[in-house]
Amino acid sequence: MNALRILVADDEAGMRHGVMRALRGLSVRLPDVDATVGVEVEEVASGEEALARVDVQPPDILLLDHKMTGMSGLDVLHALQQRGSEFLTIMITAFATIESAVQATKCGAFDFIAKPFTPDELRGVIRKAAEHLTAQRRARELAEENRRVRFDFI
Q1: Rounded CA gap, 24 and 122, in Å?
Q2: pLDDT in tens, 128-141
Q3: 20, 51, 72, 98 — which has fewest CB within 10 A?
């Protein structure tokens, strides 16, 4: 993994700009693979744009606003579930409730962060997601290697 691709989908330009500033120059240490990766951040202003961007180039992590005009974050999550997307989604919202967090998690969200959040809180959630993503990918590689070894043995 050369760089983590992060897509920010939020209808508030100020929030997108703040996230971009907070993540600019971030490097994430991945101890499981003994590596450090940087981040590349892109932004979109709607759920529809997020789905279109995901179709062209899926991110590693999607930061998705819960309440957007047009397609909501949950609508986007439902669409992504049907597509079988393999990246992690972190919901961001100013309307943080236990119910909305549970609903987002049931729809496939990896994590949930309430607005307003500090840059350090955001970076912490990104680090946790990056470590999880790395562990998932490593587990898939090991499973594939195990399958190949068994096939070769037989």
Answers
A1: 12
A2: 999 888 888 787 88
A3: 98
- The residue type of 3 is A
Q: Which residues of 53-63 are buried (b: 16+ CB within 10 A; e: fewer)?
A: bbeeeebbbbb
Instruction: Specify the pTM.
Output: 0.85
Q: How far apart are CA 29 and CA 44, in angstroms?
A: 27
What is the spatial order of strands in the sheet that 27-30 belongs to?
27-30, 35-44, 3-9, 61-65, 88-93, 111-114
Sign of CA pseudo-dihedral 62, 68, 69, 74? positive
CA distance 142 to 21: 36
In a 13 Å sphere around the CA of 115, the CA atoms on its Cβ side amount to 18
